Amino acid sequence: MGNAVGAKSNEANDLSIQAAIFDIVPSGMLDDITQAVLAREDVGRYLRGGHGQSELEARERIHAYLDELRTTQRYPIYRALKHPLYPILRKIERIDENVRIAQEATRRGRTIYISNHKSHLDYLVEPLVIDDNGIRPPVIAAGINLFGGPLGLIHRHVTGAIPIRRNAKDPAYLVTLKAYVAELLQRHDLLFYIEGGRSYTGELKSPKTGLLHAAVQAERVDSSILPLAVSYDLVLEDHILAHQGSKRRQRPFAREVAEMVRFAVGYQSRAFVTFGAPIPLDGYDPESRRDVMALAHQIRDAIGRLYKVLPTAVVAAAMRPSITRRELESRADELIETLQAAGANMGVEDGRCAVEEAAPLLESRNIIFVERGGRFRVRERTVLRYYARTLQHLLVGPRRTPRTH
Question: Which tens digit of pLDDT belongs to each residue from 337-350?
Answer without folding.
Answer: 999 999 999 999 99
